């Protein structure tokens, strides 16, 4: 079992327990992809597996799980709400490289600067954030442009010990996901046309930024080539723009 398999197993089983899931279409070429990297004794097989679901309130619940042995372990787990709900995004980026671990966990807001929105979706989870922030050291500075897309409850850490990932980070992942599904359960559809347009624009801004700045792009290009990588990013990981174009 790999480092982030328990995270993925928990997320899928817990979401199935809480929600009535339907499959979200995954292009066949993205379901699973493998490559051999390194040489000699350092050679590893890297496998990228994709998972996706949807519900009436959540447009896409998806995971990209990269298993590369000692060289690389990654889980990117994101939930995108339907365009008629003002829910934030759930985002978990869990990365382990030979040099250490990178952990990013957040409910990324649609409207970061609106007081009513912060009161609704950020302030209720701040006590949870502070509890974990005391147990996980802050990961340091990150790009200013990226700060627009994270909430004050953004959990960002570079724990040195695998044991911390397996215990404290797993607990945080579990609790953030539970809190997010609580928000989703309580969410009511938005009907005002002006607000619906604002949600659509905010979702597009977020997905375009994430697609353009995806830190995994270089890794995927090395493993699988540029064409597959760009299609994976725009056609699966951050596919809102493509989805809207196909509908129109």
Automatic annotation (TrEMBL):
Pfam (any one): Fe_bilin_red
Reaction catalysed by this enzyme: (3Z)-phycoerythrobilin + oxidized 2[4Fe-4S]-[ferredoxin] = 15,16-dihydrobiliverdin + reduced 2[4Fe-4S]-[ferredoxin] + 2 H(+)
Membrane-crossing segments per the record: none
Keywords: Oxidoreductase
InterPro entries assigned to the protein according to its UniProt record, in alphabetical order: Ferredoxin-dep_bilin_Rdtase (IPR009249), Phycoerythrobilin_Fdx_Rdtase (IPR022827)
A GO biological-process term: phytochromobilin biosynthetic process
Gene Ontology MF terms: cobalt ion binding; phycoerythrobilin:ferredoxin oxidoreductase activity
EC number of this enzyme: 1.3.7.3
Assigned protein family: Belongs to the HY2 family.
PANTHER family named in the record: PHYTOCHROMOBILIN:FERREDOXIN OXIDOREDUCTASE, CHLOROPLASTIC
Function according to Swiss-Prot or TrEMBL: Catalyzes the two-electron reduction of the C2 and C3(1) diene system of 15,16-dihydrobiliverdin.
The name this protein goes by in its record: Phycoerythrobilin:ferredoxin oxidoreductase
Source species: Richelia intracellularis HH01
Gene assigned in the entry: pebB
